Amino acid sequence: MSKDSSYQRVRSHLAYLGLRTASERLAPALEAAEQDKPAYADFLDLLLGAEVEATEDRRLQRRLRLAGFPHQKTLEQFDFSAQPGLDRSLIKELATLRFVEERSNVLLIGPPGVGKTMLAVALARRAVESGQRGYYTTAADLVARTSKAAAEGRWQNTMRFWAGPGVLVVDELGYLPLPGEAASHFFQVVSRRYESGSIILTTNRGIAEWGDIFEDTTVAAAILDRLLHHCTVVSIDGESYRMRGHREKLSQLRAAIAGGGEIR
Q1: In this structure, how many other beta carbons lie within 10 angstroms of the beta carbon of residue 113?
Q2: C-beta separation of 138 from 203 below 8 A
Q3: Cα angle at 144 between 127 and 64, to 5 degrees?
Q4: What is the C-alpha separation between 242 and 228, in angstroms, rounded?
Q5: Could you please report the per-residue DSSP string of 85-117?
Q6: Residue 6, class by beta-carbon neighbours within 10 Å (0-12 exposed, 13-18 middle, 19+ buried)?
Q7: CATH 3.40.50.300 residue ranges in the chain?
Q8: From CA 115, how far away is CA 75, in angstroms rounded?
Q9: Of the candidates 50, 157, 172, which has an alpha carbon nearest to the alpha carbon of residue 110?
Q10: Does 243 score more than 60 pLDDT?
Q11: Does the domain at residues 75-243 carry the CATH identifier 3.40.50.740?
């Protein structure tokens, strides 16, 4: 059997087995092997290692796509200098993902614009990169979807959905009230995930105000009981990034007007 026919058969086998990357890299790998003369095991390790790396990357990209994150920013991009009061050592500890392994929660509390969503998504992204399933939702969208599912007789299916991800980001709790049925549905999701999966929750309301969010102190207490039992609370009290940006633009505008220059 000729060398060319053996090569084509190997490529055909790799393609048949779905090893697309290994098939594509076979030719350059063989060319390199002609020079370096690696052992058979080393050659296979190089070729199959490329396939494993490509497979892992495809799976990561799929997990990121299904997570529905509103952005793809990382913890390294977070501007800690803009929030000097934030405990960096605490964020560093959360970045180890120990809270995910322990199925505990993270509660990010602070006014609008201080970076709560960015931190929540960045932590969840790190978990997804480690192999976990993640999912992002706002509190309002969560209860809207559970209410729709209940009305359509899909309650058990939707509960399995919300219980599924290793890390669930629930953003913007407190911007809109969640009374009555909405509060009950929110409680059901939190209860279903209790000690079985992590929740990263952001809110602009202090814990003492949660009775106002749900318009029922009993439901609020039940939700807090499950969330806070295994939880890291992060308070961010700094200035809004957006307000700081607006102030900088205003300063530029005033300087440009005073100096007769261009506004950037």
Answers
A1: 17
A2: no
A3: 25
A4: 30
A5: TS-HHHHHHHTTTHHHHTT-EEEEE--TTSSHH
A6: exposed
A7: 75-243
A8: 11
A9: 172
A10: no
A11: no
Q: Which residue has the tokens 């219980």?
A: 163
Residue 195 has pLDDT above 50, yes or no: yes
Work out whether the CA dihedral 245, 250, 251, 256 comes out positive or negative: positive
CA distance 134 to 57: 16
119-176 per-position pLDDT tens digit: 999 999 999 999 999 999 999 999 999 999 999 999 999 999 999 999 999 999 999 9
Residues 91, 211, 100: CA angle, nearest 5 degrees:
30
**What order of strands is seen across the sheet that includes strand 134-138?**
134-138, 167-173, 198-203, 105-109, 231-235
Cβ neighbours for 49, distance < 8 A, ≥ 6 positions apart: none
How far CA 34 is from CA of 28, 29, 43, in Å, comes to 10, 9, 11
pLDDT band at 259 (very low <50, low <70, confident <90, very high): low
